[in-house]
Amino acid sequence: MVKKTVLTHPVLSTELRTQILGKNKRRQVGLFGGTFNPVHTGHLVMADQVGNQLGLDKVCFMPDATPPHVDKKSAIAAKYRVEMLAAAISGNPMFDLELCEVERGGISYSYDTVAYLKHKHPDTDYYFIIGADMVNYLPKWHRIDELVKMVQFVGVKRPGYTPRTTYPVLWVDAPKLEITSTAIRKRVANGESIHYLVPDAVAAYIEKEGLYRE
Ligand SMILES: Nc1ncnc2c1ncn2[C@@H]1O[C@H](COP(=O)(O)OP(=O)(O)OP(=O)(O)O)[C@@H](O)[C@H]1O
Ligand SMILES: O=C(O)c1ccc[n+]([C@@H]2O[C@H](COP(=O)([O-])O)[C@@H](O)[C@H]2O)c1
């Protein structure tokens, strides 16, 4: 007589197993906060390097409303900065926009933003991408001791800044590009070329809207 085997734990097909495991996998998302006045090639290269080297699902460029530094309050309206970002990231499927700070308005404290995003997306781990200048400034960030427990900070070296920190920063090696938004704005005001320092679509947008002429 053949004994009947009762399967108390049904065996999953490979396809189903992948589907279920895939669904349970936590999303790994890079948050790249900045004023982006305007976004430049330095930003795009560092975001791409971080995303690829850490194997992130997405890197979200997140323009701020009012940056927490006093000296950066004169940035152009968010509408322009967002439109330039949208033009710059189109074509890279890993890149996305996170607009919660410009929608919220007021001073864009990262603690508030990360608390909001973690509540909205409990299945996601966040990696907050910053340049070396910002790494050195971390002790002055709002509620930083709580924030470092909520995200993994990812640092990218930047010409002119020697990183010094006691906070747990994960360093990613990317080509060091001596490009700043300040220099882009100055070049436009002086009538100098910004070709290759920003994507073509961003240069065309700056020209069309007459931004940064003075
Ligand atoms: N060339 C660069 N290399 C590494 N990090 C950079 C570079 N440019 C900007 N960052 C980092 O990107 C983030 C957003 O930068 P932000 O939008 O303020 O650009 P910026 O070039 O520093 O602007 P500005 O010249 O107006 O101060 C910050 O964490 C900053 O440290
Ligand atoms: O939360 C803070 O206190 C804080 C202080 C300085 C900078 N940040 C964030 O760091 C990111 C880069 O800042 P910035 O001024 O270089 O564009 C941007 O998302 C800011 O909101 C945040």
Automatic annotation (TrEMBL):
<keyword id="KW-0548">Nucleotidyltransferase</keyword>
<dbReference type="InterPro" id="IPR004821">
    <property type="entry name" value="Cyt_trans-like"/>
</dbReference>
<keyword id="KW-0067">ATP-binding</keyword>
<dbReference type="InterPro" id="IPR005248">
    <property type="entry name" value="NadD/NMNAT"/>
</dbReference>
<keyword id="KW-0520">NAD</keyword>
<dbReference type="Pfam" id="PF01467">
    <property type="entry name" value="CTP_transf_like"/>
</dbReference>
<keyword id="KW-0662">Pyridine nucleotide biosynthesis</keyword>
<keyword id="KW-0547">Nucleotide-binding</keyword>
<comment type="pathway">
    <text>Cofactor biosynthesis; NAD(+) biosynthesis; deamido-NAD(+) from nicotinate D-ribonucleotide: step 1/1.</text>
</comment>
<comment type="function">
    <text>Catalyzes the reversible adenylation of nicotinate mononucleotide (NaMN) to nicotinic acid adenine dinucleotide (NaAD).</text>
</comment>
<feature type="domain" description="Cytidyltransferase-like">
    <location>
        <begin position="31"/>
        <end position="187"/>
    </location>
</feature>
<keyword id="KW-0808">Transferase</keyword>
<comment type="similarity">
    <text>Belongs to the NadD family.</text>
</comment>
<dbReference type="GO" id="GO:0004515">
    <property type="term" value="F:nicotinate-nucleotide adenylyltransferase activity"/>
</dbReference>
<dbReference type="GO" id="GO:0005524">
    <property type="term" value="F:ATP binding"/>
</dbReference>
<dbReference type="InterPro" id="IPR014729">
    <property type="entry name" value="Rossmann-like_a/b/a_fold"/>
</dbReference>
<dbReference type="GO" id="GO:0009435">
    <property type="term" value="P:NAD+ biosynthetic process"/>
</dbReference>
<protein>
    <recommendedName>
        <fullName>Probable nicotinate-nucleotide adenylyltransferase</fullName>
        <ecNumber>2.7.7.18</ecNumber>
    </recommendedName>
</protein>
